[in-house]
């Protein structure tokens, strides 16, 4: 039987067994008709099941009917209840944050550190300088950047260079 | 002379409209720390030679 009280094909065949020469079990057949009569979602099915149940009951003894009613009361759907979806397995190895780092290269004197950065579309080596206040680029690169549309001339500013000197742009 | 560079990429970080001073050819190009500050917190690991963001 399905959850909505309709007889499955296997149950239908089991309720016809008494007409096909197989051993009769009126109590079991009565139970299925009874369940279908009380649980079927369509009125037509409920009425049909109730009619079959009553016709069957007319051929049964009171003890058989009582047994059938007991079976119906104790019947439980065999379809297992829906289980909640399994929770995801604990991640034993959570991803480590990707190091967000840039490699630095020491200069010849071992003190200065250089990095490669992209200025416009081109990678360039720049000196990482704690005393500098800005970015400086060489004149040829500046001209190339402007000429190719990757930069434009800006307002005049004073730039502190790596050696501490200042240059007015 | 100063130029405004459309994009400067440092590691995975892209800075836009970066002002830059212009130095004579042959001089080191310099990256000042205030530029890095625009990206956020960073650390200079002088032992492993890494500029680490975050």
List the helices and strands and how they pair.
The complex is a heterodimer of chains A (169) and B (54).
Chain A: H1 9-15, H2 26-39, H3 43-57, H4 62-74, E1 101-106, E2 113-119, E3 122-129, E4 135-138, H5 139-147, E5 151-153, E6 158-160, E7 166-168
Antiparallel strand pairs in A: 1-2, 2-3, 6-7
Helix pairs in contact in A: 2-3, 2-4
Chain B: E1 2-10, E2 13-23, E3 30-32, H1 33-37, E4 42-45, E5 50-53
Antiparallel strand pairs in B: 1-2, 4-5
General description of the model:
The complex is a heterodimer of chains A (169) and B (54). Chain A folds into 2 domains: 66 residues, no CATH class; 65 residues, no CATH class. Helix content of chain A is 34%, strand content 20%. Chain A has 5 helices and 7 strands. A 3-stranded antiparallel beta sheet of chain A has the order 1-2-3, with no helix packed on it. Chain B is mainly beta. Chain B has one domain. Classes of the chains: A alpha+beta (169), B mainly beta (54).
Which characteristics define this entry?
heterodimer; A: 169 residues; alpha+beta; 3-stranded antiparallel β-sheet; two-stranded antiparallel ribbon; 5 helices; 7 strands; B: 54 residues; 1 helix; 5 strands; 9% helix
The secondary-structure class of chain B comes to mainly beta
pLDDT < 50 stretches of chain A = 9-19
Distance from first to last alpha carbon of chain A: 89 Å
Order of secondary-structure elements of chain A: HHHHEEEEHEEE
Class computed from helices, strands and strand pairing of chain A: alpha+beta
Shape of chain B: globular
Give the count of helical stretches of chain A.
5
Radius of gyration of chain A: 44 Å
* Major sheet size, sense and barrel closure of chain A: 3 strands, antiparallel
**Average pLDDT reading of chain A:** 78
């Amino acid at each position: 039987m399905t959850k909505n009280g309709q007889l499955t094909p296997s149950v239908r065949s089991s309720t016809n067994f008494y007409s096909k020469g197989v051993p009769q079990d009126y109590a079991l057949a009565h139970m299925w008709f009874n369940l279908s009569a009380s649980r079927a979602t369509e009125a037509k099915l409920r009425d049909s099941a109730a009619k079959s149940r009553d016709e069957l009951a007319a051929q049964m003894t009171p003890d058989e009917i009582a047994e059938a009613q007991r079976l119906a009361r104790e019947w439980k759907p065999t379809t297992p209840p829906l289980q909640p979806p399994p929770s995801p397995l604990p991640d034993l190895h959570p991803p480590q944050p990707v190091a967000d780092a840039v490699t630095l290269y020491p200069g010849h004197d071992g003190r200065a550190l250089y990095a490669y950065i992209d200025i416009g579309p081109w990678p360039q080596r720049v000196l990482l300088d704690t005393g500098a206040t800005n970015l400086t680029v060489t004149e040829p690169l500046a001209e190339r950047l402007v000429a190719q549309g990757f930069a434009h001339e800006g307002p005049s500013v004073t730039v502190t260079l790596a050696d501490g000197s200042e240059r007015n742009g | 002379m100063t130029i405004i560079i459309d994009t400067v990429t440092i590691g995975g970080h892209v800075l836009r409209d970066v002002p830059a001073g212009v130095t004579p050819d042959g001089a080191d190009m310099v990256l000042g720390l205030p530029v890095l500050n625009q990206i956020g917190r960073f650390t200079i690991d002088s032992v492993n030679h890494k500029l680490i963001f975050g």
